[in-house]
Design brief:
This protein is 54% helix and 11% strand. By secondary structure, it is of the alpha/beta class. The protein has a five-stranded parallel sheet. Mean pLDDT is 89; it is low at 241-247.
C-alpha cells in the first residue's frame, strides 16, 4: 500500500512528500508520532521543497552577474552605504510597491554586488527578476529587431517585477538605442520596479542620451518614486589587493 502511494505521489510530482514519507518510514521514532504530527511534517517538507525549487528557478532566470547573498554585504568599508536603508531594501517591499532604485559611485565601490544582492533578495521573496548589463541589453535589442523577436523581448522585460540595468551610462545612447530604452522604461513606469547602477552621478545621465526629448522622458520615469544610493571612496578591490600585497 505504501509503495503504491509513493509511486502515485511520484507520478503526480509531489516530490517533497515522497522524500518526507520515505524518511519517516526509515525512522522508527517517526512511527511514534500521531497522524496529525506526521501529516504536518509532510506538508512542511513539500512546502519547503516547492519554495526551494521556485527560488532556484527564479535565480536561474534572473541571470545575476554574481552570486551575492544580501547577508554578505560589507558595511565596514567607508563608502557611504546606509545600513538602515539597505535593511529596508533587502525586504524587497519596494519592488511590489513599484518603486525604483538608482545606485551610483566610482568603479570598485560595490554597485554590482549591491544590485545583485537586492536581486537575490527579491528572488527569495518569490519575485521575478532579470539582470542586464547595458551593453548586452542594447545588443540583444538590436538582434531582436533583426530577427523579428523585438516585441517578445519587450514583453518579457515588461513582465519582470524587478529589472536591473547595470553599467548605465558606460557609453552614450544613440537615437535608436535611446528610443529602445525608453520603450522598456515606459512599459515599466508606475507598473514595475527598475534598478539602475552606473558610475556617473544621476545629474550627468542626461548628457549620455543623444536625443534631449527622449532623455527627458527616460529620466522623468526613472526618477519617479526612486530610492538613491550614492557610493563614494576608493575601490574596494584595490584596497583589498593593497592589503594582500602588504601582508
Amino acid at each position: 500500500m505504501i509503495r503504491q502511494s509513493l509511486d502515485k505521489l511520484q507520478e503526480m510530482r509531489i516530490y517533497g512528500t515522497v522524500e518526507g514519507l520515505s524518511q519517516q518510514l526509515e525512522q522508527p521514532a517517526a512511527q511514534q508520532l500521531s497522524f496529525d504530527e506526521r501529516f504536518g511534517l509532510l506538508v512542511d517538507q513539500e512546502y519547503t521543497y516547492r519554495r526551494n525549487r521556485r527560488l532556484a528557478r527564479l535565480l536561474k532566470e534572473a541571470k545575476l552577474r554574481i552570486d551575492a547573498p544580501p547577508e554578505d554585504i560589507d558595511y565596514h568599508h567607508p563608502r557611504g552605504l546606509d545600513r538602515n536603508l539597505m535593511l529596508t531594501l533587502i525586504t524587497s517591499e519596494w519592488v511590489p510597491s513599484r518603486q525604483n532604485l538608482l545606485i551610483t559611485g566610482p568603479t570598485g565601490t560595490g554597485k554590482t554586488y549591491i544590485a545583485c544582492a537586492l536581486g537575490n533578495a527579491a528572488c527569495r521573496q518569490g519575485l521575478s527578476c532579470r539582470y542586464y548589463r547595458m551593453p548586452r541589453l542594447l545588443s540583444d535589442l538590436l538582434t531582436a529587431r533583426g530577427d523579428g523577436t523585438y516585441p517578445k523581448l519587450l514583453a518579457r522585460l515588461a513582465k519582470m517585477q524587478l529589472l536591473i540595468l547595470d553599467d548605465w551610462g558606460l557609453a552614450p545612447l544613440g537615437p535608436q538605442e535611446a528610443r529602445d530604452v525608453l520603450e522598456i522604461i515606459d512599459d515599466r513606469s508606475e507598473a514595475r520596479s527598475t534598478l539602475v547602477a552606473g558610475q556617473l552621478p544621476v545629474a550627468e545621465w542626461y548628457q549620455t542620451i543623444d536625443d534631449p526629448t527622449v532623455a527627458d522622458a527616460i529620466l522623468d520615469r526613472l526618477l519617479q518614486h526612486a530610492h538613491r544610493i550614492v557610493l563614494k571612496g576608493e575601490s574596494m578591490r584595490k584596497m583589498t589587493n593593497d592589503i594582500e600585497n602588504t601582508g
